[in-house]
Design goal:
The complex is a heterodimer of chains A (137) and B (193).
Chain A lengths: L1 H43 L3 E7 L2 E3 L2 E4 L4 E6 L7 E3 L20 E5 L4 E5 L6 E6 L6
Chain B lengths: L1 H39 L8 H25 L3 H28 L7 H18 L3 H30 L3 H25 L3
Helix pairs in contact in B: 1-4, 1-5, 2-3, 2-4, 2-5, 3-6, 5-6
Classes of the chains: A alpha/beta (137), B mainly alpha (193).
Chain lengths: 137, 193
Amino acid sequence: MNFIRLNHNPSALSRGITFILYFAFLSTSLAATRVQNSALQVKQKTVIHQVNIVGFKFVPERLEVAVGDRVTWTNNDIAPHSVIISQSNTAKKGKEITPRLEPKQSFSFQVTDGINYQCGIHPSMQGKIIIQSVDKR
Amino acid sequence: MQTFNNNRSNRLPKILTQSSKSLLIGMMLALVSVSACTSANTNSKAMTDANIAAIVVGANNIDISAGKIALKRSKNAQVRQFAQTMITDHTSVLEAAVALVTKLGVTPVNNDLVATLAAQSQQHEQHLNALSGKAFDKAYIDHEVAYHQAVIGVIEKQLIPSAKNAELKAMLVSVLPAFRAHLDHCKMIQSKI
């Protein structure tokens, strides 16, 4: 009897183990897909970085962002300012990033590349956008 | 004839440059000496908030006025852009200062420094109105460098320490970055003309 049971049980046991393994694999795959989807959603979500223009300075002066992120400059100063590609950056020098921003006005810009920038009205005001390495995200 | 004209055109800017230098030195000395007198007489004749208001209004008006002359007389794009910035920014500072002293109920009262600044400014404007071309650009920008240096010194060493009202003191502190940015800007232009 024991032999017969032993002879029949391994087959049932095998089917049980196979079912459990299959179920475990399916669950893990689904979970992994969910994690991947969620990571994809995080990557697709646009991050907006704020740069405050105050005291004739860009605060922060140096900003690390990912490609596709947006940077919003807000003029909280007494005088108008603007943002242009820095004169030292020869390829696109002088290119306008924001229009002239009167006090309390803002402008948002989608980042595609790292840039050195300055105020188009007050050239001593300087700032920098650096593209963040992927592993930092 | 051509040589004579060239000689005259070469000599003229030198004479005017000397005149410009003496005017600048005069203005710097005036600011320093009046500041020194004010400092020495702090106990007997301290600078009041009303005096400070008059200096702030006067100093901004002087630079707005010089900027308007530059827009009329200069053809240099950088000089013209700087002049327009001086008009815009100093008008903003002036409006903020006037709004504050009005709110505080302070009526500006002229003192020796205001009178000296006004006299020197009148002399400087007459000098600028007699110039054109590169001679004008150099005289205007050289003066802007010296003027902003002098005004920053007066604000830091005289006006801020003397201001009694906290809001007036805060306003003086807040306008310093603007004056420093202007100084950096005109120094950049000075190195190119």
